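MODEL INPUT / OUTPUT PAIR
PAIR INDEX: 1
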Amino acid sequence: MNRRDFGRIAAAAAALRLTPSFAQLVDKSADELTNGEFNWFPDRSETGPVLVIISLPDQRLYVYRNGVRIAASTCSTGKVGHATPTGVFKILQKDKNHHSSTYNNAPMPYMNRLTWSGIALHAGQLPGYPASHGCVRLPKEFAERLFGVTKLGMTVVIADDKSQPEEVTHPGMVLGEYAAREFNAVDTAIKATEYSEGREPAPKSPSVVVSSADKSIHVFDNGALVASGKVDIRDPGKPLGERVYTLSGADDQSELLTWQAAKVGASAKTTSEDNGAALRRIKADLPAREAVRKRLKFGMTLVTTDKPADAKTRSGDGFVVLDSQS
């Protein structure tokens, strides 16, 4: 057998090992799902921004739309030596028929890319335990359905515990004490924007990172840093915690912005303050607020952290605050 033939056989064997496993749609709660099973209840919430949360200990992926859980699935994440990173990510690329450029052209159907270094959501083999090289493998039928509701730039949270999003209505540090007459313009701008579709290589929803460690705010647009500034934090000795807020619209009655918020990482267990209270403690300087105001968009992500907000920010056990460039 020559080297070329051996390579072809090895590639075929690798592809066979990674062939998507049997998937079964069931009418069960998330806690009752067994390996390869998933549920799907889109009628529970038919509109609004989608948020995906993955619990590594539970080996579960949860899908929320406008704060309501519409689906859950079993999954297989990274094995020892190839751990799936925790943190807040953006979907950078979508490819229905993707193949790995690293692992012998292995098929990765219905791929949603989270990092350029190779972390993604995709259909794959589920042995019932963490077994991937860092990706999140999903039952094929579920991966296909998920692919149909995800958009470029939307938020995916990978956590080392469970996180349940909640609705928060507050202008907070984004607009400060903006006048009521400005509300209609903001509301119209938010409702006029949607997530982008296609295979562009960068997120389309702006992102904001607030760090209590260095009292900083960083604004990202299309994956690039566009503004930085300082924040005042009331009760600075109290941690903000690792939290993610997704802009879902504007509340017509209160004339406040509406966010879907969740604690992630270690703060979900150690920080008792609710998400709305944490947001109300933050006040950004005027240039930063103006940079955010100009980019208000359906699906905008705001992340808080208690570690310095640099390009390699980590907290807890490898928490990635915002990994859209790696």
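PAIR INDEX: 2
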Amino acid sequence: MATTTRGIYYPTSSNNIAPLESHFSLLAGSVDQAMAKSKSGTTAEFSLGTTVGTATTVTVTFPAAFASIPTITGTVQTLVSGSAYVVNFFNVTASGATAKVTRVFGTSNDGNLKVNWNAKVE
């Protein structure tokens, strides 16, 4: 068996691939393990004041807890052009985090903001 860079096993020409059930079971298990290391999601909609420097916090809850504390990154999604935001994460745990969203440019009233996030453990 060989392994991808993400740790997923697969049979090669030198492997005896009978019975197939055991190989598919191994493959499914390795994909399951790889997927457990990364989760993505989107928060509920929220609004933010129109003054540059205005900030708010949003709760991020992972759909399932990680085995350890993950690294989390994210972006702010808006339906209105002309404004810019930054998002920082703190109080990160195995089950979630708090996102702080700050307006850094623009004064439009965009009340449909969301945080798109990705969390993963190595």
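PAIR 2 NOTE: The first strand starts at residue 2 and ends at 3.
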